Amino acid sequence: MTVRRYPAATVLVVLTAALVVVNGFAFWGDTFALWIDDAMQLSAGVAAVVCGVVVARRVRGHQRWWRVLVAVGMAGWSLGQCVWSWYQLVDGRGLPSPSLADVGYLSFPVFALAALFTLARARVRPDRERWQPAQWTAHFGVAVVLDGLIVTGSLFILTWTAALAQLVRATAPDKLTWAVAISYPLSDLVIVVVAVLLVVFDRVDRPYRANLLLAAVGIVALAASDSVFAYLVSIGAESMKPWSDGGFVLGPLFIAFALLATPGTRRREDANQPVGIDWWQLALPYVPVTAVALLITGQVVAGAGPDAVEVYVGVLVVFLVLARQLLSLLDNRLLLRRVYEGQQQLTHQAYHDPLTGLANRALFADRLDRALESGPRPLVLIFVDLDDFKEVNDRFGHAGGDVLLHAVAQRLLSCVRAEDTVARLGGDEFAILLEGEVAAPQAVADRIQGVLRRPFAVHGTLVPVRASMGLVVPDPAEPLITSDVLLGRADTSMYAGKRLGKDTTVVYRPSDDGPPDFPAALRRANGGIPEGFALVFQPIVRLPDATPVAVEALARWTTRDGTAVSPETFVRAAEGAGLGAELDALVLDLACREITAAGVDLTVHVNVCASRLGAAELEQSVGASLARYGLPADRLVVEITETVPVPDLAAGAAAIRRLQALGVRVALDDFGAGYSSLTVLHALPVDLIKLDRALTTGVQPERDAALCRSLVGLCRDLEVAVVAEGIETAEQAELVTRAGCPTAQGYRFGHPAPLSSLHLSAAPLTAG
């Protein structure tokens, strides 16, 4: 019987129940009513047997065997009904007990119990689809036990009141009669408890749940009439009215429907829908409790209060119900906690980037808005965009790109404070919000570029990364400033840096002249000093007493609107525009002029790109500057910066010798990084090398010290002076001192500043 046949079954049940009621009035006499009653009982029992056999032939496995067991049980019950009808209608014995009819009747609970357990194991759907288990609570096991005890205790009280108490107290003619009479309520109690518990604790989405529900209703109906029969036998009644036999008619009818019922085919799209609430599971455990409460209330009102057994078992059921409710409260609390945790997780997912774990655009904009709304306070916004990130995706695939983005995110976090915000805005774009006092925003940007320049490991390959950054320091007094405006300014500055040659940091300043253009400024100067261009000098000191022995000239450029453009940016822009030689000549001329004008007896270091080593213009510029300002040649050191490799080592060596012939010394800058190597050191007859900061400020001091000692020893044998760059702490200074390095340079000994601000006075550098 499929779901579509349920309306017809409902009509049949209603008509049968109506016939039982009408027959109970015995309008045609008691004898005819008994014939009709027994015929209805036998017809319902035989119908259940036929339904079980017919359907069992069409199914397999557990679905066959539970129907076979029920059919056998109902066959025994029907045989008992035949004997009963003979005794009652033909032999005229009234309510014979014990009799052969009891054998048939009592066989049904045995086979029905086995059938229920077999049905509970039927899990395979005809369409082989898997069903999701119900979502139980954290204390489901304990709840099952408590609900089972509540149902058992409540049904025991009802059975005790209906028949069992009377049977226990009754004085039967013999023990067999008493045992047969009491076996009816006891067997019914067991099978009803099992049926109810299976209904309550079975999975809601089980395909054969309808079979279980219908079978349980039929069993309860049979048990109700059995209890009435046992009670009538115990009090010596001569007959049983048709109304009392209603369970013997409707019970087999419901069991027949249970045997016929087969699950309808569920559409595949419906199989993924969440399972709804099963009200049977929620209400059924408390139906017997409600019945017990009504029973005891009626007894109290009638003046026949509950006996001791009812009181004791009733109190136990009450405590069990209280324990079950307490368990429900605990489950609700756990559920609320899970809901809260789930909401927190959803909130985190809504405001964080799933790949890097950083704040996303929405959270970053919210924090930026809040920072702006909190009143006038210092803020710094940095926009970071990775240069040529598409090449990483093309080379390693998107998985490799994701690895790189995650690593970049971790390095960005290492550059800021815990209270600052780092966000991934999308793709390879990041943003950083620094709140509160930020002493040197440019220093933070330089630190970020420094950590990003260390190669990243992607699928076993070291990948260099460069980034263009836009930096915005909003004016606290500026009215109506918004997060969108600040992000737009940072984005504009970042793209201005990309146009200047990438791997740059551009500080935003309001301007009507468009993005900063150093090559244009250099051309407009026409051999003079471009507007905003100047030199700063950083001291080089002798170790260990930190006495200044030289200075390095460093170029700086500030645009007309006050934007400080990083040296890497405008130098690269000049190189790209073919103006690198003009820039080198300008720096050389200014350095010689300022060191001479300052009147300090120090050596000055000037950077020159390696690509111009050997060019006649370089040698002419050196000679002209020395002659123009009267600077002794031994007080000038030309540093070869290897942003590009030396194109011809042999030609480069010849050019160095020509410079040395003028009395100028030549240094190899950033040794150990870029294109520097021992081969270059061997090929080029330089007077001095400057150890890159990566060789002196690493994370393994012992290894750094050993490497530094080796290089210093090698240079000593080659009669080449050594300067350690990037020294920022006393520990780093101590490391290079112990390694034998005679001179050093870095923030530990002085920041780059105009020459007049350094207050230097020392002897010339004697180490070369």
Structural description of this entry:
The chain is α/β, with parallel strands linked by helices. Helices cover 57% and strands 12% of the residues. The strands form 3 sheets. Strands 8-9-11-12-13-14-15-16 form an 8-stranded mixed β-barrel, surrounded by 4 helices. A 5-stranded mixed beta sheet has the order 2-3-1-6-7, sandwiched between helices. A two-stranded antiparallel sheet has the order 4-5. β12, α21 and β13 form a beta-alpha-beta unit. It is rod-shaped and about 150 Å long. The C terminus is likely disordered.
What's the mean pLDDT score?
A: 79
Continuous helix count: 25
Write out the strand line-up for the largest beta sheet, numbering strands in chain order.
8-9-11-12-13-14-15-16
Distance between the termini: 105 Å
Radius of gyration from CA coordinates: 49 Å
Q: How would the global form be characterised?
A: rod-shaped
Low confidence ranges: 123-136, 265-277, 762-768
Percent strand equals: 5-15%
| Proportion of helical residues | 55-70%
Largest sheet: 8 strands, mixed, barrel
**How many beta-strand segments?**
16
SS content category: alpha/beta
Give me the secondary-structure topology.
Elements: H1 6-24, H2 30-56, H3 62-91, H4 100-120, H5 140-169, H6 175-201, H7 209-234, H8 246-260, H9 268-271, H10 279-283, H11 286-302, H12 308-351, H13 361-373, E1 379-386, H14 389-414, E2 421-426, E3 429-435, H15 441-453, E4 456-458, E5 461-463, E6 467-472, H16 483-500, E7 505-507, H17 518-525, E8 533-542, E9 547-558, E10 564-565, H18 567-576, H19 580-598, E11 603-609, H20 616-629, E12 636-641, H21 649-661, E13 665-671, H22 678-683, E14 688-691, H23 701-717, E15 721-724, H24 730-738, E16 743-745, H25 755-758
Parallel strand pairs: 6-7, 9-11, 11-12, 12-13, 13-14, 14-15, 15-16
Antiparallel strand pairs: 1-3, 1-6, 2-3, 4-5, 8-9, 8-16, 9-10
Helix pairs in contact: 1-8, 2-3, 2-8, 3-4, 4-6, 5-6, 5-7, 5-11, 5-12, 6-7, 7-8, 19-20, 23-24
